[in-house]
Amino acid sequence: MNLNQKTAIVTGGGSGIGRSTCIALAKAGARVFIGDINKAAAEAVAAEIHAAGGKADALYLDITNDEAIKGFADGVQAAVGHIDIIVNSAGWDIIEPFVKNTQAYWEKIMAINFMGPVKVTRAFLDGMIDAKSGKIINISSDAGRGGSSGETVYAGAKGGVIAFTKSLAREMARYAINVNCVCPGPTDTPLFATQPEKMQQALIGAIPFRRLCKPEEVADAVVFFASDRSSFITGQVISVSGGLTMMG
């Protein structure tokens, strides 16, 4: 898939699915702006892309902070003026029973997993509307499609991302902007590695393919949605989860 002359932003691009997405987009020819709260990690990904002959820039981004989002958007727009692809990949979760959740936990879950994508999308949307083109890809989760024990508020936030995707797709269709969603299942990322071993094995056992998803496999779906091969697809949700959820 050819993304030459395209520009992309990826939130949470310093690790996990975001990192693999940055590498895949750059390999396809896009110039990638890597936004991450861990700027050193983003810089390491950018260096990896440069070493492979690609184009990437690392910028600080805290998607829970309005000023940081503005600073990121201003930096990107000063460099290239227009963005073709938005990938909302940053996410966070801790597995614990709903009755043990604190108010602070709820607020952090919602700020990162739902309002972050909303705010980042809005920061770049006017340029896409003016250009009458663009691809927006939101990373949700199969937890948002089928629910997940121990991730109740996280699942709610990710379900919100799915509904946000579909509703925004309806509004943006008149501007030829595609808005789609990728839902990973359990994926081999640093965040997954923080979960208890017993939980990890239970999740792997529930996957028909009996293995974790690789971050690169999620990135492949993102690149498809970012490419011209998905030009007549919008408002859609695809699970990359080894059959963990099979939604009609």
- Global morphology: globular
Oligomer: single chain
Separation of termini?
28 Å
Number of separate strands: 7
Number of helices, counting only DSSP H or I runs of 4 residues or more? 9
Largest sheet: 7 strands, parallel
Query: Could you say what the CATH topology is called?
Result: Rossmann fold
Question: What's the CATH C level?
Answer: Alpha Beta
Overall helicity: 40-55%
Low-confidence stretches: none
Mean pLDDT, as a whole number? 94
The H/E string reads EHEHEHEHEHHEHHHE
* CATH-level-2 architecture: 3-Layer(aba) Sandwich
How many domain regions?
Answer: 1
What percent strand?
A: 15-25%
Our Rg estimate from Cα atoms comes to 17 Å
Structural class: alpha/beta
Find the CATH superfamily. Answer: NAD(P)-binding Rossmann-like Domain
Walk across the major sheet and give the strand order: 3-2-1-4-5-6-7
What would your notes on this structure say?
- The chain has a single domain (7-231), classed as NAD(P)-binding Rossmann-like Domain (Rossmann fold, 3-Layer(aba) Sandwich), CATH 3.40.50.720.
- A seven-stranded parallel sheet has the order 3-2-1-4-5-6-7, sandwiched between helices.
- The mean pLDDT is 94.
- The chain is 48% helix and 16% strand.
- The protein contains nine helices and seven strands.
- The protein has 248 residues and is α/β, with parallel strands linked by helices.
What is this entry, summarized?
This protein is α/β, with parallel strands linked by helices and 248 residues long. The chain has helices at residues 16-27, 39-51, 66-80, 103-131, 143-146, 152-172, 190-193, 197-206, 215-226, and strands at 7-11, 31-36, 55-60, 85-88, 134-139, 177-184, 237-240. Strands 3-2-1-4-5-6-7 form a seven-stranded parallel β-sheet, with helices on both faces.
